[in-house]
Backbone:
């Protein structure tokens, strides 16, 4: 029945839907599924060898030295997540609150807090690498200038400070993002509620804990989930600042660097192992998807609809 | 009738073999984009002598070269001729059967190459050579001649001399060494460049013979001395990256740089006025043999499935010739692996002289055939040592137990 309005409508819809669907299938679904498949094969360089079942997973999780490397990198990611939760999201919430309360200079600070977010991560990494340079870095020069030469450190070269240096660089870069999301959440709180609170109490603390925090729960869900995903996919800042090996001696190694090194090799040391690399990628993906799902589910449950 | 069919087949077969011989265009893949002009010049020389063969030089980004090459070879679309890495990197490609085996019959000049040069392109399992090695690199100490002269210093003959020279520079307010170890692979470089003479040739021989491992007191002793001399590295050197270290030396702020012979061309470019010298870091006593650490960093190979085998082999013979080696040394300022080449640039000539007393750059040459590689282990263990997180004894033990995962002689 050509010409029937129903048929042409269906045709029209499929013409609109099929191209994007094909695009997503080809460039999103297919790569993800093939990465899953890669993890079950033995690889000779880039040539696929025989099917090996879960051998690659067993290798990265239970055989040495991979097992130690995996645990070491994973624990660093966990550490980074909690540190950034405090430094980035915690500080972001406080900054948002200050901006929302329109403290003096709020307009200026609103922009300056967000400004680093628009810089490329690579630029931020190089910038902080220069700040932390042991001889000419602004951090050490400032300490020496203040007569605190004892505090000048080879920040990126020692185990005790290297990972923290990366975390602080990341927090500096990204703190504007949670700030902006929280601020938007705060601005959505209706004026009547705030007026009602004002009649009950003058305490800022009560206001924050009893009113603001519960009411920005949707923002918190977004920010927490993204931070979780970001922390476990962390790559650019460590790559630029300490290199693929997670220098010094693995003190800054995280799953992203470890995966890259394992899969693609490293000109200055290790060979490439696509199978083990794919297995790591699958493990990281499954872990992030599961936990991010749980976080979202749990946090959604505590959101209040205004 | 049968005869007609078979003679037709033979004729067609002969034609099929003759056809590619008539149009002999060879593709030649490389990771040296910066050397394209020079290679095209070398190719012109070859083409002038071999009419009917043309060689097309194609370059790829160095860090992705291995991936691009192995993908192309695995997919059956590789080049006729190609650059190959050495040691473990070469074996990855050769073990797939992608490379043409070379020997005295097809490339006679190979028999004149030194044994270590050939070893870099020979697969251990079948003792077959797959590429013509092109250059060696040497780990040594580069020094700023003006700074040495100004402070009345000469090339140190013993470890005490070495320490005294460093002390003198430090007292004069000059950084003795420019090196930093925040970039992981630089840790391997300082071991090769500073303490090869102290670990000594006998240790190397015993290690290869399976009579010693890294807990040997000669190796541990060498690491102890390494730790000692890093006192003269810049303040906070464990946080100093490779690029900054190079700049400290090329800007004339430091007296010495421990590094590879590949740094010389780069320093020259950064600071054309700087006068440089080189030496092999001394052993404990003046009479100990002074050793540099040597490795080969690439070779030329032919595709086993090339349709123009004869032409490709002809080109490989050209690349193994004295004539080519000389052009390579002159135009690319590298230590050609071809024996008997002379060097216009005096410093390169000195490197070639130092190479006469060398041991292999250990981890790269012998311990990159399995995971964890010796390089990965050494780099991280030296960072522990220099950061005060491990003793030389612990480093030796960790290297040995780490390598025991795949290196048979260490398996107990």
Residues:
């Amino acid at each position: 029945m050509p010409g029937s309005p129903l048929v042409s409508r269906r045709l029209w819809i499929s013409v609109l839907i099929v191209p994007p669907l094909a695009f997503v299938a080809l460039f999103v679904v297919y790569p993800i599924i093939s990465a899953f498949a890669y993890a079950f094969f033995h690889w000779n360089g880039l040539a696929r060898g025989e099917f090996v079942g879960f051998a690659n997973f067993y290798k990265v999780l239970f055989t040495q030295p991979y097992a130690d490397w995996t645990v070491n990198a994973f624990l660093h990611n966990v550490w980074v997540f909690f540190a950034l939760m405090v430094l980035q999201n915690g500080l972001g919430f406080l900054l948002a609150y200050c901006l929302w309360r329109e403290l003096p200079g709020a307009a200026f600070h609103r922009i300056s807090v967000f400004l680093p977010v628009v810089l490329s991560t690579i630029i931020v990494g190089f910038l902080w690498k220069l700040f932390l340079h042991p001889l000419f870095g602004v951090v050490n020069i400032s300490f020496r200038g203040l007569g605190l030469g004892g505090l000048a450190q080879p920040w990126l070269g020692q185990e005790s400070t290297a990972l923290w240096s990366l975390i602080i660089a990341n927090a500096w870069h990204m703190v504007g993002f949670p700030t902006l999301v929280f601020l938007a959440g705060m601005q959505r709180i209706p004026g009547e509620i705030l007026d009602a609170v004002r009649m009950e109490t003058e305490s800022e603390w009560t206001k924050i804990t009893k009113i603001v925090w519960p009411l920005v729960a949707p923002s918190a869900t977004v920010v927490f989930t993204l931070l979780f995903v970001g922390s476990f996919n962390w790559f650019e800042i460590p790559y630029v600042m300490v290199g693929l090996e997670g220098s010094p001696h693995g003190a800054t190694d995280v799953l992203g660097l470890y995966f890259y090194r394992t899969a693609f090799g490293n000109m200055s040391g290790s060979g490439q192992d696509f199978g083990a690399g794919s297995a790591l990628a699958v493990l990281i993906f499954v872990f992030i998807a599961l936990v991010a799902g749980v976080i979202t589910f749990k946090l959604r449950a505590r959101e209040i609809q205004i | 009738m049968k005869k007609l069919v078979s003679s037709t087949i033979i004729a067609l077969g002969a034609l099929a073999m003759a056809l590619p011989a008539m149009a002999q265009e060879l593709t030649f893949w490389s990771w040296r984009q910066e050397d394209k002009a020079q290679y095209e010049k070398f190719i012109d020389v070859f083409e002038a002598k071999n009419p009917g063969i043309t060689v097309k030089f194609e370059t790829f980004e160095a860090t992705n070269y291995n991936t691009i090459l192995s993908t192309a070879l695995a997919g059956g679309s590789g080049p006729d001729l190609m650059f190959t890495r050495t040691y473990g990197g070469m074996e990855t490609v050769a073990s797939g059967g992608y490379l043409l085996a070379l020997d005295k019959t097809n490339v006679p000049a190979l028999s004149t190459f030194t044994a270590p040069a050939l070893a870099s392109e020979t697969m251990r399992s079948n003792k077959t050579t797959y590429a013509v090695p092109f250059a060696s690199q040497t780990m040594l100490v580069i020094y700023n001649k003006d700074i040495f002269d100004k402070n009345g210093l000469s090339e140190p003959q013993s470890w005490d001399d070495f320490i005294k020279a460093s002390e003198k520079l430090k007292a004069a307010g000059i950084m003795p060494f420019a090196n930093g170890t925040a970039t992981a692979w630089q840790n391997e470089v300082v071991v090769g460049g500073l303490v090869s003479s102290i670990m000594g040739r006998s240790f190397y021989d015993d290690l290869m013979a399976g009579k010693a491992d890294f807990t040997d007191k000669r190796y541990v002793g060498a690491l102890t001395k390494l730790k000692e001399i890093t006192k003269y590295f810049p303040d906070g050197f464990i946080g100093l990256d490779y690029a900054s270290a190079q700049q400290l030396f090329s800007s004339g702020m430091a007296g010495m740089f421990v590094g590879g012979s590949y740094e010389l061309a780069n320093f020259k470019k950064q600071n054309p006025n700087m006068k440089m010298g080189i030496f092999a870091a001394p052993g404990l006593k003046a009479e100990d043999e002074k050793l540099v650490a040597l490795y080969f960093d690439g070779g030329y190979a032919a595709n086993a499935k090339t349709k123009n085998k004869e032409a490709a082999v002809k080109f490989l013979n050209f690349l193994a010739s004295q004539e080519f080696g000389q052009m390579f040394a002159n135009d690319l300022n590298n230590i050609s692996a071809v024996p008997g080449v002379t060097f216009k640039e005096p410093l390169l000539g000195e490197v070639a002289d130092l190479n006469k007393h060398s041991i292999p750059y250990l981890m790269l040459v012998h311990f990159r055939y399995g995971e964890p590689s010796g390089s990965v282990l050494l780099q991280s263990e030296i960072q522990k040592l220099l950061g005060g997180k491990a003793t030389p004894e612990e480093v030796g033990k960790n290297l040995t137990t780490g390598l025991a995962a795949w290196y048979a002689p260490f398996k107990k």
